[in-house]
């Protein structure tokens, strides 16, 4: 059976998704998570931590890197903040970031990224999950 023709994003149903990204030690560095092949709205960012304390003021923030920039550490660190900063603490309950509703719209071709700051500690002992909920249909 021959293959199917590629279906452009505007022809498939709306996105309503939750993704969970398991983060640990080196994987917590600045990272591109989602490429927006259509306009997206980020509605929720939740971080749950386990493992030993990382010390200092280690944090995670969700940022967007505008199209057509390729996400690099420099671009991610300078990205536009979508959520409040999530502090990393040992064995903490789920911590929800406050979404900034004036910046949570992610234009097509842009990226949703993790911006990390190790603070005075190290990220080597960190274990946790980051949940993001996003959609493509505006209210």
Characterize the structure shown:
- With 139 residues, the protein is mainly β.
- The protein contains one helix and ten strands, in the order ββββαββββββ.
- The strands form two sheets. Strands 1, 3, 7, 8 and 10 form a five-stranded antiparallel beta sheet that branches.
- The longest helix has 5 residues, at 73-77.
- The radius of gyration is 16 Å and the shape is elongated.
- The mean pLDDT is 83.
Strand-helix topology:
Elements: E1 16-24, E2 31-35, E3 40-51, E4 59-65, H1 73-77, E5 80-81, E6 86-87, E7 95-96, E8 105-106, E9 111-117, E10 126-135
Antiparallel strand pairs: 1-10, 2-9, 3-7, 3-8, 3-10, 4-5, 4-6, 4-9
Write a concise synopsis of the structure shown.
The chain is mainly beta. The chain contains 1 helix and 10 strands; from the N terminus they run E-E-E-E-H-E-E-E-E-E-E.
Strand fraction: 35-45%
What would you report as the Rg, rounded to the nearest angstrom?
16 Å
- Count of individual beta strands: 10
SSE order, as H and E?
EEEEHEEEEEE
Question: Counting H and I runs of at least 4 residues, what is the number of helices?
Answer: 1
Task: Compute the average pLDDT.
Answer: 83
Distance between the termini: 41 Å
Largest beta-sheet characterization:
5 strands, antiparallel
Shape estimate: elongated
Into which percent range does the helicity of residues fall? under 10%
């Amino acid at each position: 059976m021959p293959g199917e023709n590629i279906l452009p994003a505007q022809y498939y149903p709306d996105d309503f998704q939750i993704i969970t990204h398991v983060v640990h030690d080196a994987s917590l560095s600045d990272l591109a998570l989602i490429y927006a092949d259509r306009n997206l709205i980020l509605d929720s960012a939740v971080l749950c931590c386990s493992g030993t304390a990382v010390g200092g003021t280690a944090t995670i923030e969700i940022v967007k890197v505008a199209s057509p920039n390729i996400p690099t550490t420099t671009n991610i660190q300078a990205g536009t903040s979508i959520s409040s900063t999530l502090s990393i603490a040992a064995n903490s309950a789920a911590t929800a970031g406050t979404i900034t509703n004036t910046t949570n719209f992610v234009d097509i071709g842009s990226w949703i990224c993790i911006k990390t700051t190790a603070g005075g500690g190290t990220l080597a002992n960190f274990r946790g999950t980051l949940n993001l909920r996003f959609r493509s249909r505006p209210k």
